Amino acid sequence: MSRTLAGAAAIAGIGATAFTKESGRTELALAAEAVLDALGDAGVAPQEVDGMTAFAQDASSEIAVAREIGAGELRFFSRVPYGGGAACGTVAQAAMAVATGQADVVVAYRAFNERSGRRFGRAVRQDGGEPTSQSLELGWHVPVGLATPASWAAVAARRYMQVYGAVGEDFGRVAVQARRAAATNPRAWFHGRPITLEDHQASRWVAEPLRLLDCCQESDGGVALVVVSAERARALRRPPAVVRAAAQGAADGQMTMTSFYRGDGAGLPETGLVGGRLWAMSGLGPSDVQTAVLYDHFTPFVLMQLEELGFCGRGEAPAFVAEGRTALDGPLPVNPHGGQLGEAYIHGMNGIAEAVRQVRGTAANQVAGVEHVLVTAGAGVPTSGLVLGAYS
Q: Residues near 190 by Cβ (< 8 Å), separated by ≥ 6?
């Protein structure tokens, strides 16, 4: 795959709805708006779309979205499971389809009413439905109170604290930096609303050691991306973000957010697996990226990802952040759009759109001299990642 995928495809268009807490619209309408916005951004007609990739959890089917936007025949479609872990995987699938000739114009999308509709932060229901392997796994945890994503992440966070001596303020600095970036991003829900470390420490407990401001938002909205060949993208309306590398991965002993029975529990081996493949495929390393978009559903996982991806050593991420190395004016700005903590939680797809803007040089908080951007998808689940770069 590394011989054919790297550099073969590019993201040529990005689109999004407004990010709200109550859209008042159907999820299909949100998906169609985001897709049409992305196609307009790329300068590609809806009739040219012949492929679609989406999340397994998305309620809007490919054929329904195709009808809504006026697309023609679809030659390729796929869905990626594991929630937010699918984000970069949708682009990987689209890039592979383009690189192998399965399709010419592939749209990746995610749209939901995740605040006003089904809230992902709520407790998992064990409703006695048809059993699945995941419901059997959750059967070990839900009855003893581990019933929400925050509670699952809290276990990993507590273990990280025990192993490396991290404290709550170390998590809080991640949130403060994200909200500081969101405050100067007009697209962000928390535009104009930064926080202090004192604000973080005063926020209520959700699942100790996680506070409210350690948790990402619940948002309504949609994001879409248009993927075409790198050659075609060069001739389109916007500067392309070339897919230098794309990877998916699940680690040994993987469960969905509850991999409590493997290793020391203070890391994210699936992120390390994906990161290693991204570096190998792209021929790059941590020192070659100018900014990173890391999936920030919970603040401790940002620290773990920095370590797994090789930006710092094990247990060194708290100091790495405290020294300002991930701030907007630091050597490795992380989530310059504000992330899912500050901009919106669209299952990581808005982070990919931000990476494209950084490559184009059009971001609200533009990082100087961007040549390559690393993007990660959901942590704690089977996951995915991308390295995007400018056309050369």
A: 179, 182, 183, 338, 342, 343
Distance between CA 76 and CA 117 in Å, rounded? Answer: 29
Do residues 359 and 292 touch, judged by C-beta distance below 8 A?
Answer: no
Beta strand 9-16 with 241-249: parallel, antiparallel or unpaired?
A: antiparallel
How much is the pLDDT for 134? 83
Cβ-based neighbours of 202, under 8 Å, separated by 6 or more:
none
- The whole-angstrom distance between residue 177's C-alpha and the CA centroid of its chain comes to 17
User: φ and ψ at 206, to 5 degrees?
Assistant: -105, -50
First-to-last CA distance in the chain? 21
Cα-to-chain-centroid distance, residue 149: 16
Q: Quick check: is 295 catalytic?
A: yes
What domains are defined for the chain? 9-117+216-390 (3.40.47.10)
**Structure confidence by residue, pLDDT tens digits, 295-327:** 999 999 999 999 999 999 999 999 999 999 999
Q: Would the CA dihedral through 356, 360, 362, 363 be positive or negative?
A: positive
Active-site residue flag, 109: no
Our CA dihedral for 25, 88, 292, 35, rounded to 10 degrees, sits at: -40
- In contact, 385 and 274? CB cutoff 8 Å: yes
CB atoms within 10 A of CB 27: 21
State pLDDT tens for residues 143-168. 888 999 999 999 999 999 999 999 99
Instruction: Please count the helices (runs of H) and the strands (runs of E) in the chain.
Output: 13, 11
- In Å, the largest CA–CA distance within the chain is 57
SS3 63: helix
H/E stretch holding 276:
helix 269-282
Q: Which is the catalytic residue, given 82, 109, 160, 345?
A: 345
Residue 129 pLDDT greater than 80, yes or no? no
Q: How far is CA 274 from the centre of its chain?
A: 14
User: From the centroid of its chain, how far is CA 138?
Assistant: 24
Query: What are residue 275's phi and psi, to 5 degrees?
Result: -60, -45
Which are the contacts of 344, defined by CB distance < 8 A and separation ≥ 6?
19, 187, 188, 189, 217, 219, 221, 350
